[in-house]
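#struct-help
A.M.: can someone run this one for me? Single chain, 477 residues.
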Amino acid sequence: MTRADYSASLNTLLNNFQHNFGPLSDLCIDKIRHNSVSLWTRYCLDFIISHFIIAPAVIAFWRGTWDHSTIYWAKVFGEVSSENTFPESIFLPCHKTNLAILGIGLIGSQLIQINHEFIRTKIAKIDETSSTRRTAWNVFISRIFSVFWGFTDIYFWKGVWDGVNCLFDNNSYKTAMVTLFGGTLVLICLKSLKSTASSPVGVVTDDIANCCHASTFLQTKRSDTFLRRLLDAFLSFFVEFNVILAWHGLWTILDIWQAEQNHSNEITAWISFGIGTFVNVALFFTQFAYSTYTDDIFTNTDEKSSSKPVRPTRGFQGLDGFPKIKKSTKLKDILHWIWAHVLGFIFSGLCLVSSVNTFRGYWYLLDEYFMPGDYEKSLINSQIYGALVLFVFHCGCSLHAGIYGDVLQEKGGNMIEYYYSSYFFIKDIEAKYDGNIVRKKTVPLLVITEDINDQEIADNYRTVEPGRLGEDLNDSD
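D.P.: on it. Structure tokens below:
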């Protein structure tokens, strides 16, 4: 890699971080550049954390909630004896059980999407302009929000998934192909195929920008009219419905192929895990070239929009992401724009392949190795341990659903969030070198952070001397 390529990749990474978590001061960016080796080391480590720690926790929570919901509601409706733990007869998606699960999931997810801004500002009392970055109350409500949304979203997915299996032949390649390509085509038309990406393709930390936040299709705010927020919830539901269809199709194809090859769950689990891991590694390394390419193409000439955003701009940016062609636009530029979107859809398609295969691999491995003697207890413990690991690692927001665009024009907007230790690394630099203020070194994002207006805390601050910009982070105050 040449020095120019190295610099371009670093610029892309920093642009993406600001795209997701808000702008950094020039002083902070300068300090990060002086410690770029440490940043890259942590960023590579984050891929391992994402794939082998955060992803299993997310999938364990999904597995426990998904499969146990059938057992629990079947018992409620008297469709299975309480003495049985894992009879094949409980998986009857056409019965009352599936209708109850779908209803709970649909109502819960819609309530979240309509009212998330109210929950964020009025209940969690999250204020991005406050000098206190997070409080214990913020953390408590965001945890409840993540678990509630995780439960309702999983219920919604299961209701749709089992509904498709109920209405159509779930052992047919034809049904699987229709759901896969039908859902994928709709998502491509809406420029939101990337919404199919899930853990381990990225990490969603419990940053203040993510807590009690829903990335919806229209990105409505509490100030928008109720009708617009209702429309946003419906469009987000429509996108997620097609995301489920795409996942259902690919997963079903893999299950049918497994049956044809007479593979055991253990063998097919390792095959899927291997495919998911390989594709995720490919995504991790190719994202820099792809994002740098799109950054070069979508050069924003608007002086106002080229300035740093006052808040994170992550999430779906709307269909206006398609470039506007003018009479003066050259054919070469048009072809570049088309090629960028083609690459974007391929990139998002690979995110789908990695996510589904990794999910399926970990899911079946948990079936095989995690408390196999008592399936119901295995499911309950999957929920508990999955949520616990996510909260301990401050990644509870990884349970959130969201709508994401495929090809964004904002610089750095087309990368994947593999930030974990690198997130803390950058946030620590930001806490120390925010503008002309240096704070004492702290671990950001933990339960309670200091208020910079307190005199006791202010005594720990001082002005940065220009000559010290290149010094090591571990320098004492």
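A.M.: thanks! Residues 3-325+332-428 form one domain.
D.P.: also worth noting: The chain has twelve helices and two strands.
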